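Predict the structure of GNAT family N-acetyltransferase.
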Amino acid sequence: MNIRPLSRKDEVKAKEIWKICFGDSDAFIDEYFNRIVRYEDTLGCYDGRELIADLFMLDFQASISGIDFKTEFLAGCATLPKARKRGLMRDLVKSAMLGMRKSGLAVTYLHPFLHAFYRQFGYETVAYVKRESMRPNSGHMEKEPAIFSTYDKIPEENMRRAYHRYIAAYDHSFIRSKERFSKWLQLLFADRGYAIVNEDEEPVSYALYYMEENTADVFELVAEGKKARELLLGSIPAERINYFLPSPPDEAAEEFTMMRVLEPVCLLKKMPLKAEHFILEIKDDFLEEHYNLRVEKVEGETNLVEETVEKADLSLTIGELAQAAAGAYAQGSKFDACFPGKTACFFETY
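Done. Here is the predicted structure for GNAT family N-acetyltransferase.
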């Protein structure tokens, strides 16, 4: 077995693996490989010359408490059925992490098929959602929101402004460049999705969704407040509309986005802190690292973080550090004394 980046000659096989593992349409897969995939940011596992597993690293920009982090989002992590349960994805993810860390990234993200699977690699859940459902309520507006099924006439810039206005209310989210927003919409329409946009109410609101028989499954909802949400969703021509809303990590919430810390020192230097100073022990079993750090808050500047032999005030796994830094914990947890809680909102899943 050997691991290396994919090349163009691997594209047919990589598309075949994607189709087998995820079942997406050929149109979506073609669009994804044409617009999203950068072959220098891929990894494949080969049995001889045969590609049997792969993953993709996508350029993203995360914001945590107003601090921007360049990051990579893992997507399309897939293994052919005949090659599963051999630890291939473990090896691929580890190689990806080491490469990202070498390039100076402090954190990485993904949306998993199974949270428990990626938890073993040091990922932890940092964003939660609650699923909701409603029936349409047509005829409630003088002018119905516009529905788009192609890219050519969509009010993209108004939507992008609405997106950034919406996520500004949260402490932890992804920042989308104009290019990233365009690619996101083009993927939607390549996969026969829809966008509904209400430009007649301020602020602008929109939803991205797919139709399954007579049900609309909304995977991105940018609408501020219950009234705006119901006006928008109620105009979707479906018998039932399913959607989700960002949620605190309470008992009724569903796990969503996961984050992995690659460089604890780099992260802690930038993060807002609650305690003035503390000693932090961090265990990273997956990458076989151990840290014992003195952390001192410096207002308006980079925090002081240095190695120490002092006894730790707080001991965390690398996954728990992601939760703590992202503020994704219930009130009264062991993180509360050192790290401020935060709100999070993510939509991207690939």
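The longest strand covers residues 50-64.
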